[in-house]
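Let us begin with a simple case.
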Amino acid sequence: MARPKKEIVESVNENTAVPDANQKPVSPNDLEWTDHVLSLLADDEKINGNPTTEGLRRIFEVALNCSTMEARTEVVQSPDLANERRATVVYSLSYVLNDQSVPEDIKYRTVSAAADVYWGNCDKVFRNHPVAVAETRAEGRALRKALKLRKVVTADEIAKDVVDHSEQNTTINHSQLNFFDVFGKRLNININKLLDHLAINSSNIYNISYDDAVKTITTLSGYQQNNDIPKEVIGYDPNWK
């Protein structure tokens, strides 16, 4: 007589999470949405709890169930002496939702975000690359906007080791002096007369403050754009130093 087969009973660990078939998926309009999105990030995609731009870029299409159509960067302000080497970048992201229940006329979406970077809001290790930093920050802000994250700032937007203005420059530097000479020659402007016109002490050119040098460069840039140069400063002198 054949022996009866033993019934195999699998033990279930009471700590094992069992998916709830009735649980409603989290949507961008739910209060839990931000926590849900951040939970998709790996540990190395967060710094002190703040998501990195790279991390948000990786999970973007998964979180929203979408496909990226176009990502475009526009540098609207390039760094130069007149603007204290400030860079401003706009990042635009176009995407389409893959959810078939979404009406066709609102499936295609575009978000844009801007960021500006200069010595005063950038870690000193990156301050010589303001355009690259501004691009990363603008992309992070665009991703945050598209993902509808609440009360979240990307790690790339936080500067911890900023060099104070007084530490970076106190007096006129070589680049500014060269700017004076190039534009003085180009616009036929007497630099010493211009400094007097701006009430800047020109008795020793090398003692001009950094801020006054920026003020002078801004004035020269304005003259070039508007072609409205006061007669009293006309007449370039190569020996202005």
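The second case is a distinct protein. As before, the sequence precedes its structure tokens.
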Amino acid sequence: MLFDFGPWEIIGILAFIFLILLVPRLLRARIISGVTKSTLEFENMANELKELLITLSREKGKPVLDQEKTINDFMEFFLVPPTNLDPYGIVDKFEKLLDLSEERFKQMIKVIAPMADEETKANIVMTLKATLAVNGVAKQIRHNLELAKKTGNLQILLSLQMGLPLIKRIVNAQFEGAKAFSEGRPIGDGIGPLIASMFLKDYKTEEKYVENDIYVVKKRMDERKLIIARANGPGAHVGKVGRVVKNIIQNYDVDKIITVDAAVKLEGEETGKVAQGIGVVIGGPGIDKSQLEEVITKRNLDLEAVIVKMSPEEAISPMNQVIADASKEAYEIINRSILNSPDDINILVVGVGNSCGIPNTFEDLSEIKIKEDVKEEKRQKNGYFKR
């Protein structure tokens, strides 16, 4: 006996010490294995999207230069946000940077797909942006993984492991969204332009034009003057909503604005739920929203908002039938609001969102290429992150 401990007690103590030393190593190895597998899947997705871009530009754009090297070089593109130490004027600074960024994307498309038509070029731009997003996530996950392996930091590994389920959902949606852009199919975020176009059925045009990728139509509804603004389709555009709507308000003496857009639902809420409220529903960095709120406040305009709820993944994935059907309810709500407004006023309806796959006018909702409802197992069959 040692220190009055029997053989089994000594074995138990040694086993306990052994477990204390071994368990962290086993845990680290297990987490590294899981995160490495996910990292490789992210990188494979990014590579597949790059191949998709190469194929798309080759088929549609007839490029002269080597697209593969050009696209790979562009994967390092970045945008440095303006300093917010002094917030005065930050909106204008941010807008200038985004304008320059958009111009850079357009120049890139002229290189890899010079012969493509304008709508196809817009789709390739959105595909390129989605590819950049997936590639950026893959690089960031790889960075944290290698840093954790290099330093042996278990906290970094645990953070990665806990965050991966949510990251996978978003990246998988971006991957599917990129495919939708490349094929010219609508995504969930296109619900705003879709609803706006429903007001253009059987109309007599008084005036229509395109400004900064925003399609604007002026028409009459009974005694009311109605102005419809939405991203120009069917190419993948978002447009300068704030800038264009600001000009519309100044030129047409608008009295009331109704904005309609997709909005993030809470977990447990139903996809396609339609809600009404007050305010400006425009996503993004906030530039368009700031511009609208400024002019609305100065002119003391009546303001309403309608949203169609969906998850972040559904917003950037191909539009499903539930979301498409919700457009009918949202249309009826906006239509009632217009009819309940005083006569002889100018009402502006703004359909916010991505116009990919949604033409400016259509006769029936069946003309829109909605994603077919399939079982989850079948949907995941050729995708990533199989369960």
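The longest strand covers residues 256-264. The chain has eleven helices and seven strands.
Keep these points in mind for the review questions at the end of the chapter.
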